[in-house]
Amino acid sequence: MDKNTVIGIIGAGTMGTGIAQIASTFNHEVILYDAYPDQLDSSRSGLEKILNRQIEKERMTREQVDGILERITFTNELSSVKPCGFVIEAIVEDLEVKKNVFSNIEKFVDRDAVLASNTSSLSIASISSALNYPNRFLGVHFFNPAPLMKLVEIIPGISTEENITAATRSLIDSWEKVTVAAKDTPGFIVNRVARPFYGEALRIYEEGIADPATIDWAMKELGGFRMGPFELMDLIGHDVNYKVTESVFKEFYYDPRFKPSFAQKRLVEAGRLGKKSGIGFYDYR
Ligand code: NAD
């Protein structure tokens, strides 16, 4: 894979849009697919807003921004992934939905296209079971916000060929990211370390020891973290964060270390998903 590789991105949400921005910034043609046309509209307008801010701050020129937008094709036709040499999926964190999408992608792409998932918590082996050629599939886990976060976890599955892992790593390195190889285990490296960070903060809150603002303040002012756990969960989205915790909990055979929180579940049920819905632990309206 090189600069001429067309990049396919499945899912134009938070992560898919961010990854599209990165790939296009590094001059790749990008096909950004989403099943929902409304989501494509908000992906495009969100991206335009972010890039226009870069012009205002004199970090990019109008020509650069126009180039990034022109190289991205927004589509709701999955068959548009046909010319892609590398396809990364960033749709809802649901195994059956991901498997279904991958078996459809394989109908359109060439035999030598590399396929990847941005899953945070599902096993690479389980997603790969939907593929005819699981040896060309692996996990490529970006962090939010993808254009800013340097680290990317590269997760070969049980069937992934070594040359596929190496080619993917060098592609992602060429996007000026720092890659780290991780084994196909629940939460990989970062999300596994992060579970107790969120989980203990939620338990401290649920036990009435301190409120979210106090916990966030302590972690930032005293602990040296850039964001407190509640601010971070509000940024990530409680729907996404809760699902990841639930999945890691199940995958570790219900180990109580990873037990999800009722307080967070109630936020998800009430649609208080964090920044993206205007309210989570904090009110952004
Ligand atoms: P999101 O909800 O912002 O976006 C998901 C997108 O997928 C939406 O645009 C939705 O319309 C689309 N979609 C849903 N089902 C689809 C289908 N069947 N076919 C095509 N499109 C479909 O979610 P996100 O936060 O971008 O997360 C996407 C993936 O990335 C998940 O696997 C998540 O675990 C992982 N991830 C998320 C973060 C994060 O902080 N948000 C970080 C790393 C990895």
From TrEMBL:
3-hydroxyacyl-CoA dehydrogenase NAD binding domain sequence ranges: 7-185
Alphabetical UniProt keywords: Oxidoreductase
Leader peptide range in chain numbering: none
Oxidoreductase among keywords: yes
GO annotation terms (biological process): fatty acid beta-oxidation
Domain of life: Bacteria
GO MF term (any one): 3-hydroxybutyryl-CoA dehydrogenase activity
Domain 3-hydroxyacyl-CoA dehydrogenase C-terminal per the UniProt entry, residue ranges: 187-284
Name of protein: 3-hydroxybutyryl-CoA dehydrogenase
Native source species: Rhodohalobacter mucosus
